[in-house]
């Protein structure tokens, strides 16, 4: 049973940087993936967003380089691929922090950077390179990047890479790195997206490491909901939450149209926000994420599709302006707050017709979500009553109690 980073056979220089970063205990995926990777296995790992996958692959990779130091200067030994430039930046930063007390050279290669900057950097000795697939492939084709020395290939957010159509280029990169010793594939999910097929082509006899929507990590999310009578009431509640309760909030909305509508209303109320929606040009997307991340704005409006894969630390509140279509999407959404080791709050706005979904969500996550009220914004309608604490399917309370004697099972 692994409880501490010290149980993981990591170098003291890593333990020191972990301590400085405030990582006191490994997350579940870290505790399971790190030993398996250090034993020399290929790894197929999945864990929900925000559960510390970066360190789960970065720590064994760094440890490997410390265990087998290079004898002479040369090209990169570890290649980490991420689907987007913004993720590459984040991963690079985290790897650099973890490797703070080593002499390892860490670089990133992504689009949007002047060629000359990369050219200089590619001449240098590198240990770890974090790259987006498209740009890296260009460098390989122009022979400015040499991947013959790659010993580990790590794919981060494989599900998202496939969604974004990077499958073929990643497979070509994998072929370029054919002399590697080990491959690690990390993903938020293994279902759908073709991740299993993809991993079968990239990994050799992988050890599969999965971490459930970890209870320990999920527990730190405080949840409640407010009932809303109608749209205007809902908007008032949201404004109240944004003004009085939250520091940094992501607000989930069902559709693009509703997002645009809400945006207008918040603007009128002088609440500044950034937003993400599907089919948004990459630069505007990045711009929105950057503004939210660096705190220029403290509210991010997003649809589920648009919010996929983004990783922003320190989200204090997840607000479900609309409930999602399914309970697992709900769990995914709220997982964006309370990042490993921190606390977070998830607030849902529930209209009468949402009540059955709310019940389903509670059953799914095996946790009751309590109702709260805002003075002056109490709902006018009575809470639709559904049978509590019974396994029977929710059915509206009978006022007359005469006709419907049959209950659905
Ligand atoms: P994922 O890739 O699974 O979405 P990240 O690797 O981005 O998650 O980590 C999410 C957040 O949790 C980051 O802010 C990271 O610094 C923090 N974190 C990771 N591991 C730990 C840990 N063991 N203890 C505390 N915080 C951690
Ligand atoms: Mg990640």
Notes on the structure:
With 409 residues, the protein is an alpha/beta fold. The chain folds into two domains: 5-210, P-loop containing nucleotide triphosphate hydrolases (Rossmann fold); 215-371, Rossmann fold (3-Layer(aba) Sandwich), CATH 3.40.50. 39% of the residues lie in helices and 15% in strands. The strands form two sheets. Strands 3-4-2-5-6-1-7 form a seven-stranded parallel sheet, with helices on both faces. The protein has a seven-stranded parallel sheet with strand order 10-11-9-12-13-8-14, with helices on both faces. α6 crosses α8. The chain is elongated, with a radius of gyration of 24 Å. The protein starts with 11 loop residues before the first helix and ends in a 38-residue tail after the last strand. Bound molecules: adenosine-5'-diphosphate (ADP) and magnesium ion. Residues 23, 25-27, 30, 47, 49-55, 311, 313, 339-341 line the site of adenosine-5'-diphosphate (ADP).
Outline of the structure:
The chain has 409 residues and is α/β, with parallel strands linked by helices. The protein is built from 16 helices and 14 strands.
């Amino acid at each position: 049973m692994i409880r501490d980073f010290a149980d993981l056979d990591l170098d003291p220089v890593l333990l020191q940087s972990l301590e400085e970063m405030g990582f006191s205990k490994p997350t579940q995926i870290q505790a399971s993936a790190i030993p398996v990777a250090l034993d020399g296995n290929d790894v197929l790992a999945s864990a929900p967003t925000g559960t510390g996958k970066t360190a789960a692959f970065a720590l064994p990779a760094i440890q490997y380089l410390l265990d087998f130091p290079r004898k002479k200067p040369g090209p990169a030994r570890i290649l980490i691929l991420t689907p987007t430039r913004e993720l590459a930046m984040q991963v690079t930063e985290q790897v650099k922090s973890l490797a703070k007390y080593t002499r390892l050279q860490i670089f990133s290669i992504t689009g949007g950077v002047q060629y000359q900057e990369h050219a200089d950097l590619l001449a240098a000795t590198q240990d770890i390179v974090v790259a987006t697939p498209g740009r890296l492939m260009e460098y390989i084709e122009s022979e400015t990047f040499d991947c013959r020395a790659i010993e580990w290939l790590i794919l981060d957010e494989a599900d998202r890479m496939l969604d974004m159509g990077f499958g073929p280029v990643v497979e070509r990169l994998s072929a370029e790195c054919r002399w590697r010793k080990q491959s690690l594939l990390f993903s938020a999910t293994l279902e759908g997206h073709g991740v299993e097929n993809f991993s079968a082509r990239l990994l050799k006899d992988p050890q599969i490491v999965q971490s459930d929507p970890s209870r320990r990590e999920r527990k730190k999310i405080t949840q409640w909901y407010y009932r809303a009578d109608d749209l205007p009431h809902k908007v008032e509640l949201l404004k109240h939450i944004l003004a009085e309760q939250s520091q940094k909030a992501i607000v989930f909305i069902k559709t693009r149209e509703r997002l645009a509508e809400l945006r207008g209303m918040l603007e009128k109320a002088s609440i500044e926000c950034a937003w993400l929606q599907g089919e948004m040009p990459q630069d505007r997307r990045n711009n929105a994420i950057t503004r939210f991340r660096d705190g220029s704005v403290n509210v991010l409006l997003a649809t589920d599709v648009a919010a996929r894969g983004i990783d922003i630390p320190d989200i204090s509140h997840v607000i479900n302006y609309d409930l999602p279509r399914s309970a697992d999407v709900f769990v995914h959404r709220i997982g964006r707050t309370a990042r490993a080791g921190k606390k977070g709050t998830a607030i849902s706005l529930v209209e009468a017709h949402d009540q059955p979904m709310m019940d389903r969500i509670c059953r799914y996550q095996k946790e009751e979500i309590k109702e709260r009220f805002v003075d002056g914004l109490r709902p006018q309608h009575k809470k639709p009553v559904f049978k509590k604490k019974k396994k029977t399917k929710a059915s509206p309370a009978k006022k007359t109690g005469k006709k419907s004697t049959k209950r659905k099972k």
